Amino acid sequence: MNKIKSIILTLSLLILSAIQASAQDMPVHFTVQQKQVSPTEVQVVFSALIDKGWHVYSTNLPGGGPTPATLHLDKSEGVTPVGKLTFKGKEISKDDNMFGMKLRFFENSVSFIQKFNITEKTSGIIDVNAQETEAQVVAIYTVSGQRIAEPQKGINIIVYSNGKAEKVMVNE
């Protein structure tokens, strides 16, 4: 059971920072649940409630467009992902003039699901630094969810290493 809690905590921290999920300020609010599929497999479900007027891009979008929904594991001891990140929700497909392509996205709600094989026992949480004193910028996004290298003119969403995010207006 400690292994599953460890997996959920680690994945929760990664996905929340990766897709800008600060509950106070952000338009997408995530919860995470796990289901034990078998003694050697667990399913992690990331459920999103999306504020009106906002959307979350789907998985596997074509290159040259916005950043698709993905799950990145910096370190995963004792587990191995099984298959690709899947989704459950009403996927909307629409031509987008800004990107000049057909995009797929979700409004209102979506759940992303990833299965993992449990490959070995773990003794608890690995590499969590509760003593972090100064948060570092880990990602910057446009309001449309595209990851960018540095803030641009307009509203930018900045995600920090401590899991917090803020909207920043750049005038010049």
In percent terms, what proportion of residues is strand?
A: 35-45%
Q: Biggest sheet: strands, sense, closure?
A: 4 strands, antiparallel
Low-confidence stretches: 19-24, 123-133
Inertia-based shape: globular
Helix content: under 10%
List the helices and strands and how they pair.
Blueprint: H1 2-18, E1 28-38, E2 41-50, E3 56-57, E4 79-88, E5 92-96, E6 101-106, E7 109-118, E8 137-142, E9 147-148, E10 154-160, E11 165-170
Antiparallel strand pairs: 1-2, 2-7, 3-6, 4-7, 5-6, 8-9, 8-10, 10-11
What does this structure look like?
By secondary structure, the chain is mostly beta strands. The chain has one helix at residues 2-18, and strands at 28-38, 41-50, 56-57, 79-88, 92-96, 101-106, 109-118, 137-142, 147-148, 154-160, 165-170. The protein contains one helix and eleven strands, in the order αβββββββββββ. A hairpin with a 4-residue loop joins strand 5 (92-96) and strand 6.
